[in-house]
Write a structure and sequence with these properties.
- The chain has 317 residues and is an all-alpha fold.
- Helices cover 72% and strands 1% of the residues.
- It has helices at residues 2-5, 8-26, 28-46, 64-67, 74-81, 85-103, 105-115, 120-131, 138-149, 155-162, 174-202, 206-214, 219-230, 232-243, 251-257, 263-266, 269-278, 283-310, and strands at residues 57-58, 69-70.
- It has 18 helices and 2 strands.
Length: 317
């Protein structure tokens, strides 16, 4: 009797597999919509991960991956022993901390404010205005900032002179690099960041607000006790994903602001990879730096997700 019952798991597996294919065929239109995004990540994100192997080689382009000499952890040792390593790490962590402290709450605040606007035309107009900077490249954003902050006929410095103050060298000063950087990030990305939060707020049951109004709750209390708790899971998920970019601040923006006068506070891993790695043809070394960044981001995402689960939140997986 027991021997006859043994094949049942295989039959169950076949049924599960056939059920999966039935669901795929039934919802084929949805899967076709997903396909371009899926292929994008496979081709441009997962397949290139095979190239990480050159971080452990003395890679020579004319020899290729298969014939290049294996050097183990040589490039990682070079990175950690580099006198600039701790300066770069400090600068990267400070800029990321400023992103987390000053930028991350701004889209939430903007979304809450927009959600409270009742005149639809006014709301759409404001949304369009704050979305527009996202579609500008960092070259345009930094160029506009240059026109505003330049020592030579910059609008802000001209206003300071008119009010009796001295001009400030915003673009060449170590003290002003970080404030200028974070203000540009907020200006360009804050409006676009409101989209997910507004979508989450649209799913909140209006009856909750009706009940709160009947109980005499003010608009602020409705926001505090209904709106924010309802989007808490979304905030946690986006925060976890944000932690994955702890060493990934983006090359273009910082590189455009970087100069000889502010390099001490502006040099980050992304610009270091370009200047010390790619410009000098040190592909293995630059790959090792990128590998290090990715591992740190992965550890932080997994740790933050674990802590979120422990705190009773959903997390990202």
């Amino acid at each position: 009797m027991h021997e006859a019952a043994a094949p049942k798991p295989m039959i169950a597996d076949r049924k599960a597999g056939s059920g999966l294919w039935k669901r795929i065929i039934k919802n084929h239109a949805l899967y076709l919509m997903i396909l371009p995004g899926f292929l994008y990540f496979v081709v441009f994100k997962y397949v290139p991960m095979g190239g990480l192997v050159i971080a452990f080689q003395d890679y020579q382009p004319y020899l290729g991956i298969l014939k290049s000499e294996w050097v183990g952890l040589k490039h990682f040792q070079r990175l950690f022993n580099d006198p600039q390593f701790f300066m770069i790490l400090r600068n990267t962590l400070i800029l990321f901390g400023m992103n987390l402290l000053f930028y991350f709450p701004v889209p939430i605040i903007l979304a809450v404010m927009l959600n409270e606007v009742r005149k639809e035309l006014f709301k759409r107009t404001i949304q369009t205005m704050i979305y527009i900077p996202h579609f500008m490249s960092w070259v345009i954003i930094v160029s506009i900032s240059f026109v505003i902050l330049s020592m030579d006929r910059g609008i802000l410095n001209e206003l300071l002179v008119m009010m009796g103050f001295e001009k400030i060298n915003f673009l060449m000063s170590k003290e002003w690099f970080r404030p200028v950087y974070i203000l540009q990030v907020i200006w360009r990305e804050a409006g676009w960041g409101t989209i997910i939060y507004l979508a989450a707020m649209a799913a909140i049951d209006p009856e909750l607000y009706e009940a709160a109004r009947m109980d005499g709750a003010s608009r602020f209390r409705q926001i505090w006790h209904i709106t924010l708790p309802s989007i808490r899971n979304v905030i946690v998920v986006l925060l976890i994903l944000k932690l994955g970019d702890v060493l990934e601040l983006g090359f273009e923006h910082v590189y455009l602001l970087l100069n000889a006068m502010n390099r001490e506070v502006a040099e980050i891993f992304d610009t270091y990879v370009y200047t010390a790695g790619l410009r000098q043809g040190q592909f293995s070394y630059s790959t090792a730096v990128g590998f290090f960044k990715s591992v740190v981001g992965l550890i932080l995402v997994m740790t933050a997700n674990w802590l979120a689960k422990k705190a009773g939140e959903e997390g990202i997986y």
